[in-house]
Amino acid sequence: MTEPAEAFARACPDISTATEISTGDIVHYYHAKLTDDTRTLRVFTVGPKSTDEAVDETFERISGQWLNLSTYPNVVTVKTRGDKPRPWIAVELVDGRPLKAVQSDLSLPEIRTVLDDIAEALRNAALYNTTHGALSPETVWIQQTDDGVTALVDEWGLKDACQQAAGRATNTAFTAPELASNNTPDMERADVYSLGAVAYYALTGHLPEVPDKRTEASELTPPSSHNSHPEVTSNVDNVILKALAIDPADRYDSAVDFNSAISRVLPTAAELPTIEDEPESNDGNDKDRDGDQRDDTDEEQSNTSDTTDDEIDTQTRDIKPTRQADMGILGAVVIGVSLNMIPLLILDNLITRAATNVSTSIPIYLAVYGLIPIIGIAALGLVSTARSKTKDDDYRRVVHKKDHDLFQRNELLRRLNDIYVYFWERPLLMLGVTIPVTMIALALAIMSDWAPTSLAGMMADPLQGTFFWLYVPAYINFIPLAIFYERKVSSWNKIIGSLSKNQNNIDRKRISRIQIQIIIIMITYLASLGVIAMLDVKFEMIARLYQQGNSVDGGSSVHSGSARSIGRYMPSSDFRAMLLFHAATLQALLSSFIAGYIRGRNFRSGMKFAVILLTITLIMWQTVIPVLKVELI
Questions:
Q1: How far is CA 53 from each of CA 10, 162, 221, 405, 617, rounded to the nearest angstrom?
Q2: Which of 129, 145, 160, 595 sits at a 20 to 30 Å CA gap from 513?
Q3: 239 vs 250: CA distance, rounded Å
Q4: Is the peptide bond before 85 cis (omega within 30 degrees of 0)?
Q5: Torsion of the alpha carbons at 303, 309, 315 and 320, rounded to the nearest 10
Q6: Domain 97-265 belongs to what architecture?
Q7: pTM, rounded to two decimals
Q8: pLDDT-based confidence at 177, cuts 50/70/90?
Q9: Which three-class secondary structure string do you get for 467-523?
């Protein structure tokens, strides 16, 4: 009879060999090798006996989330994944042992490091709206080297989620109690419970009591009572018991908050007492001890400096490719800036040629409605190509906090907040509301004769016509998207404050580089807007000069024909105003989308810039340009 692992390897085009490690009805676990890699990997796959589509969908969803996180430290790395013959994921074979196997060997400072690593992995997961859901000593790998210990978080709830999808959910001492009874639990606080349970086990070697056997965290045996580490005090007990509270609202908000609290009460290696015979107290020995203490302090500071340097090296190693990509983005921005003025120069030349009896109406149309969009899209393509080589901006996937006390106390506010959160997490669904509103607004504008329905009407008042046909729809659709997106950015800025010092500095420097690139785009657009305004004034002056020349020469039979022919192809004032206003509006939109793609690799992050630049363009055309014409003509 063929083993499931062998059958899987034969049916999977990417797997050369597979050896069975453990099997179950839902998820199988193999050691395997890829066809293009000689290294042994671990493979998780849906078992051949499972026919539930919900299990397959859950496996693919969780494995996709794991893949997104695997580039971060303290997360087991995903090598690849596939769906033939059934969903599977291949991850690294960790050179270490599970926390469950090494717990008794860990010192208190090492436990503190392990908890810090786990919390860091959960923090990065939260940035991607992802939680673990099944954290336990079996899903945490410990790597022990001469430099210390490192913890890697594994599985990311893959097995448990598939079991639950198949209707076979199991609860352990590390499972938050609400996961068994609440259809919409706060998964981030559920992870806090599991992290607290893992900390309890790491400190004591004992499992915390299963939640359904108690009603309060205070019913737990405090970690300090197990005497595993004499340095574990009641302060540690208080932090652990708060994380293990039955009510999620009584726990810490996040793994970061828990880790900050536990780090304040767990002693470091330098703070642990040393056990040695006390020498006789005399002045000479006191001086020797003082000298030894100074030497120890110097050594600690040296070790701390080395650790900091190692941390910086680790965190900046993955940043170097991103910096190179940022330089590519900057190069694309510079090219886009250079190309941005080409349509305006061509437009200037065409209208000037029209003033010298050359018909240029069609080329003018092509320059405004063809060349400007084409060059803008080309610049956007350059930026998107360079931007695709950088990592996603994490603030786009921040978890929303739904449990503010004010919203929970008031039913109406709670329902309104639920609606807000729904659209906050799915901003594009707002278009289902804003597009119908846009259609109603346009219908009302047409019925009220505010929005022109012909080219002649648009040319008669290009500002009003363009406002109702373009600006009103843009405002109705862009403003809600901008609000929801900026709320996510605000949440990200709060999370930045919880980063480690070095990672904080790295992220802030990266954001600063992005801001500089966006500022270049904004300044370029404002310069283009100024050029367009001056072109409008220039062409108005030329047109009036031709009109004056024709009126002066009109009585002369010698010059009347030639004089009246001068400037006969010159676009009318209304036509020029419409073309230049549309040119400015198109450049505002394209500049906004480019800035948005630089900022967050999507157009939604440019909605704020679109609203701002469109408003600036509207104000410029309504107030500044008329004043310039009065003053200069």
A1: 23, 11, 43, 39, 53
A2: 129
A3: 11
A4: yes
A5: -160
A6: Orthogonal Bundle (1.10)
A7: 0.50
A8: confident
A9: HHHHHHHHHHHHHHHHHHHHHHHHHHHHHHCCCCHHHHHHHHHHHHHHHHHHHHHHH
